[in-house]
Amino acid sequence: MNNIISWTAEDEAIIATNTDATECKRCAVELGYWKDDYIVYFAKHVDRKAPEINRGYYARVKAMEMFIHQFLERCGTKCQIINLGCGFDTLYWKLKDSTQAVGNFIELDFPSVVAKKSHIIKRNKQLLEKISNEDGEVMIRSGDLHSDGYHLLSCDLRCLSEVVRKLEAGGAGAAPTLLLAECVLVYLRPEAARALLEHLAGAFPRCVLLVYEQCNLGDKFGEVMMRNLSARGCALPGEPHCREPGAQAARLLAAGFETARAWDMDTVWRALPEEDRARVEALEMLDERELLQQLNLHYALSVATRGDLFADLDLNA
Length: 317
Ligand SMILES: C[S@@+](CC[C@H](N)C(=O)[O-])C[C@H]1O[C@@H](n2cnc3c(N)ncnc32)[C@H](O)[C@@H]1O
Fold this sequence. Notes:
Blueprint: H1 9-30, H2 51-75, E1 80-84, H3 91-96, E2 104-109, H4 111-123, H5 125-128, E3 139-141, E4 144-147, E5 150-154, H6 160-169, E6 177-182, H7 190-203, E7 207-214, H8 220-231, H9 245-254, E8 259-264, H10 265-271, H11 274-281, H12 289-297, E9 299-306
Parallel strand pairs: 1-2, 1-6, 2-5, 6-7
Antiparallel strand pairs: 3-4, 4-5, 7-9, 8-9
Helix pairs in contact: 1-2, 2-12, 10-12
S-adenosylmethionine is lined by residues 14-15, 17-18, 21, 85-87, 89, 109-110, 113, 155-158, 182-184, 187-188.
């Protein structure tokens, strides 16, 4: 495979999706959907988003959290987390504040995203103090940020040799591994995503992979979603894999994972604890419930595993 990837305007549009995700998360946090003391450093000013967007983000964050918790329950803190296309995700800091801080946390994204995230970390004591050693130091090497147990690395996920090299530089080892791919694989061409997934499944014999991204893109609503993204210069090269959730699970099994399950987010939403749904439904009025349902039907959460320890992970666990 050709490892030289040229930089395009489309990549800029993909990178901008991180700003979007961060602003939506900050808006929902401000409205009380969930707690995140760190998102404020990554998105300064945000306009209020529509209620269905806020609820959709709540379901996404809550569902990811539920499975992250199940993973950590099974392997404790002697594990590693690898966040693919991490954007400005704040999970590392949230775990640090809990009893679930992990042994090693590696984040990968395009160089410009990594540079911005590093800059924000270095400028904000509340972020920096959670990653630096006792002397308050972090090491910056070739644009990457390294510290004990946290590595923020620039990498193009379409280039497998770079991924392998960066994971090595981040100290990825044989410990149980949680792999996160939240709204990222869809930006990779199917062959690049397959190569990446096959590599990960082969490299980590005890792992859980969480994939959150679009699904059911073949119907009318899906077509409108794609047209809107395309109008912003953002194509979805991974769209052929964004069919029904069953196809998402089949793709992960084909890549070498031993178990794989996927649910659309409407199913996930309905599986959330009743009291959690009631709490967020009381936060703001949502006139058009069908809109939330349509949105939820066009995103899916997939969970793939390797190793006996994780075979029973489930939505209703
Ligand atoms: C929609 S954002 C999601 C960010 C984060 N995972 C979250 O859920 O908040 C997609 C992220 O994937 C990153 N990304 C997309 N394609 C990538 C690639 N080929 N290599 C590295 N990062 C990539 C983008 O730069 C962006 O930060």
